[in-house]
Batch of 3 targets.
Target 1
Amino acid sequence: MPLGIPQHGATGYPGNGVLAQPYYVRESQRFAVDQERQRHSQALYTLGEYTMFCLMWHIQDYENGLVGKCPLCSESPYAEAYKQPERNKCPNCFGTTFDGGYKALIVRPAIFSDTDEGQAYQARGVVNSDDLDMESTPDFRVRSGDYCFRSTGDRFFLRVPQRVTLRTGFATPFQRTMAVGYNHARASMEDPSTVSYLIPPATQDLTTILSVHATEPVSFSQFEVIRAPLIPLDDLG
């Protein structure tokens, strides 16, 4: 509890025991969050591009009972004994060890920073590295290990996600209630030989889907797959 400040009383400073309370608890202003979200989304639709996000299953989803282990590579006695899948590049779980591999394929507007490709020596040999900054809408959550696919056919591994929440009053900044730009992440271009290229749709179909042109937002519901909440259930705001 904050301490009060002595007031001058009738008998002079330091007062007659009356304390002034200089603090107040400000209510959150939902209208301010709604307006800022609208501006942010308009910027994405003005300067961005349609991008497909592949949100993978993670251990938190398994612990919350949202998904089971992959029946092809992670439910055998051998996989249980060695605590690792039997198959490399499993066509069902895409290396996650969880059934289906991904919990959602969604299309959202996104903005990418500009960069030029470079070469780097890694465990896989010489690869063309291309790291970008990516930003999208706040109605889903990206975690390290997810992917995004561009209309160019390039596929990116997402890591180091960050958030922006708008504080307008005294309250816990949950994503559902205060997020403005939640999905900021580093996007690293994937080599065609890596596991992400097993995830549908095929590159030619992806380019066709994301290259649509219109003067107002387009619905991609026929191409989307959502198997679980896009925002974790523990975000109660």
Target 2
Amino acid sequence: MPNGDINWNCPCLGGMATGPCGYQFRSAFSCFHYSQTEPKGSDCYEEFQQMQECMSKYPTLYGLDKDDEKEDEFAGDEFAELERQVEESDKHDKDSGSSSKEPSS
């Protein structure tokens, strides 16, 4: 959002913020988004771990393969890409809204 908050309604999040692991996802993504450490999000290990534990309970929903070792990896790169998509979507929405002559509701 323009004030730096996360737009949880961004379609680029693909419903992750509202699924059965939505709380864990929002916690991990928030930690990553506001992280000041280098590499970004490296202080969010516990939040990522909790999210991954929850997602492992729903492998079909989250597209996880039981043999996939990626679950144990730090998800910082994926979160960086999601964050970039959220920012681009918000910028596009803002630009679209400001150029439209119709009032937004």
Target 3
Amino acid sequence: MLKRVALIAAAALAVGSGLFAQDLKVAVAQLSPAATEAYSKIIQAIADVEGRKISLQVLPFARAVYLIETKDADIESTLIQNPDKAKWAALKYDFSTADAIKIAFVLFTNKSKPISVADLKSGNAKGFKIETDATLLDYFPFALSASTNVEASLKKVDSGAIDGFLFSQGSADPVLKRLGAKNVQRQYYDTFTAAFLLQKGGRGGPLDAMISDGIAKLKANGKYQEIMGPYSAVASKYIDWQP
């Protein structure tokens, strides 16, 4: 009997070891070059320090999140946490326990059509048409429309085709500067916490623990600041400037 139990335990250990040896499928959202590079490097560094191998794909934002929802990816690096925690249960993915970075969000509007952030936060959108990425439509206390991409939305704001665009400073500002749009007004909206996405049920599990442990090690050896510091400088704290 003891021999049989030992054989079963050995088989289970072998299966577990085999699963651990498998490459982790990681999706990274295609944002600004600096954002995509930072998010790709940090998950690679976590995997390296934890002795894991990853297979990494850079994909459009919505597609990257979709792969987590359908369990075709193990980790998505990264997404801001929905500020309404009551909505977390209904999501088709989990947020990692460990935070990745703080992200400042900016409201971009046409200079001739000012919008009050205070009004928006109180749920008073006054019929304004404001866009954000499709993955974030449920994150705010007012109705938004899905953006096809950052450049298209900023061009629509500049021309007056839409009233506003709400997105992260670190990803939208480089596009705005490249476009040279002169009719766009920037204003601070809020700061959110970004985390890694895991498959539903993954929070508190082995991959969640791996991410937490990896981040702790990278912060201790200075690698975390080396990777995330440059991007954090332009993404985490609101920078007050105008086109």
